[in-house]
From TrEMBL:
CDD domains: S1_Rrp5_repeat_hs1_sc1, S1_Rrp5_repeat_hs2_sc2. Keywords: Nucleus, Repeat. This is rRNA biogenesis protein rrp5. Residues 1-12 have a biased composition (Low complexity).
Length: 435
């Protein structure tokens, strides 16, 4: 039989022998250099000295081919890994980690944020009334967004039954809502803005029949904060309507703040003082000082459907995230607060040291996404006191003397805007920073 050609030897060595040192995971220590490694019947054994029937040039050529193949494979793996990382990072940035972490049991990297990309129907949000018009209400929402409430979604059902909206006093909405009022609302639907690409109209509802859909008399407890309509005025107080037919409420006049004029149809917040379960009547107090200090207590079997934006809870720091903190509250729930909802108005670069693990804080629920179980919290001092932060700037204002407080690499800049009487924090996204 004719001896094998050098070309066939080169091919077989390239395929079997020289590739193993790069990919092989065989850690069998019984093999040693004195044991010949038989590659094929027609390929000579490798003696201990490492000799070969191939010339040095041919061996160098074969090794170069294998090295090139290995390096190409490594580059491909690194490229795929980088693409996956960029894709995950982009998704986390766009969605604010609303959909990450909780499903697979891993802690999220980012605090939950509300954006135009991830806002969805059914989300419950805490907002501030910024405009009251004849036919609708404009509400400022978390994340710098704005939502619209049609009159039909702001007026209590008993008022609507008594008069058609088109025939109502043109000032009716402004008589029951006011600018700066904190309200709990729910996203009804979203419309793409035909005039401006990338913009969406957010339509909201203030109807308690939707917000209180899962509220029953059995789960109401003393000290709980609830929203209600003033249905009618009686000699000793006010008949209260919770948007549900299963129970009603009453608010004695002595609990009324004399500075606030209350009228039928008005939306109020109250603290549950007592409950007559036989008559199915809940007694409230609307004293602002009492309301602002009440903390929601643990309730056995409480579900996420019973969480309402604006509720104050005792929370403890669970972990530090890249743009905020993760907190646990009401035993079973976790939520996050981003850097714009921390206790400091202007968080410094070392803000993380202010939130050691297990630190106790008071927080209010900012938003809830029932579909993903994401909960946003706020530690903002104004909101914790149940007051809207001062609105000292408006869209289009120009400030030449703004100060850079912090640089967040890859995210943007935190600015101190010289508004009056106090400065206002503002954030510039990295895509909007001038070169």
């Amino acid at each position: 039989m004719a001896p094998p050609s050098k070309k066939s030897q080169s091919q077989k060595i390239s395929k079997h022998a020289l590739r193993k040192p790069f990919k092989g995971k065989n850690k069998d220590k019984t093999l040693n250099a004195s044991m010949p490694l038989q590659l094929e019947d027609d390929v000579p054994d490798f003696p201990r000295g490492g000799g070969s029937s191939l010339s040095r040039e041919e061996l160098d050529e074969v090794r170069a081919e294998v090295d090139a193949e290995f390096e190409a494979e490594e580059r491909l793996l690194k490229k795929r890994k980088k693409q996956n990382k960029v894709q995950r990072s982009s998704t986390e940035d766009d969605l604010g980690a609303l959909f990450g972490g909780g499903i697979n049991g891993k802690l999220p990297r980012f605090a939950n944020r509300i954006t135009l990309k991830n806002i969805s129907v059914g989300m419950k949000l805490w907002g501030v009334v910024s405009e009251v018009n004849e036919k609708d209400i404009v509400v400022s929402l978390p994340g710098g967004l704005r939502g619209l409430v049609r009159a039909s979604e702001a007026v209590p059902p008993f008022v609507e039954d008594g008069a058609k909206l088109s025939e109502m006093d043109t000032n009716f909405l402004s008589s029951i809502y006011h600018v700066g009022q904190l309200v709990s609302c729910i996203v009804l639907h979203l419309d793409d803005d035909k005039k401006e690409a990338g913009k969406r109209k957010i339509w909201l509802s203030l109807r308690l029949s939707i917000l209180h859909k899962n509220l029953t008399l059995d789960v109401i407890q003393e000290g709980m904060i609830v929203s209600a309509y003033v249905k009618s005025m009686e000699d000793h107080g006010y008949i209260i309507h919770f948007g549900l037919l299963s129970f009603s409420g009453f608010m004695p006049k002595e609990s009324e703040n004399v500075e606030v004029k209350i009228r039928s149809g008005q939306l109020i917040q109250g603290v549950v003082k007592s409950i007559d379960r036989t008559r199915k009547v809940v007694y409230l107090s609307s004293d602002p000082d009492v309301v602002s200090k009440c903390v929601t207590k643990d309730l056995k079997g409480m579900s996420i459907d019973l969480l309402i934006p604006g509720m104050m809870v005792n929370a403890s720091v669970r972990s530090i995230l890249e743009n905020g903190i993760m907190l646990s509250f009401l035993t079973y729930f976790t939520g996050t607060a981003d850097m714009f909802n921390l206790q400091q108005t202007f968080p410094s670069s070392n803000w993380k040291v202010d939130y050691p693990q297990n630190k106790k804080v008071n927080a209010r629920i900012l938003f809830i996404d029932p579909s993903t179980r994401a909960v946003g919290l706020t530690l903002n001092p104004h909101l914790v006191q149940n007051k809207a932060p001062p609105a000292l700037i408006k869209v289009g204002d120009i400030f030449d003397q703004s100060k850079v407080i912090r640089i967040d690499r890859g995210l943007g800049l935190l600015l101190e805007v010289p508004s009056s009487p106090v400065p206002t924090p503002a954030f510039v996204n990295v895509s909007d920073v001038a070169g």
